[in-house]
Amino acid sequence: MDAEYPETVRHVEVVTTAVRNPDPKPLSTRDRALAEVRRKGIRPFDSERYKADHKPGFESDEECEAFIADIYAERRKNLA
Question: What Cα–Cα distance (Å) separates residue 47 from each residue in 1, 50, 53, 60, 65?
């Protein structure tokens, strides 16, 4: 014991600042988007209800195929 302070008890207290639960890995763009959708309460797509509410964009399969062919031709032209 110290002669000047005979009644003093030497006591050392250790304090750490380490994080017990480190932050999780940052969310990917996809996970952030899914979390936002869930937070907003957006429900999954119901194809049967959608089909009933929306008319098809093309009158026939041939019209649709012609449109797709035109899109592909335009893309190939732009790549050249």
Answer: 83, 5, 10, 20, 22
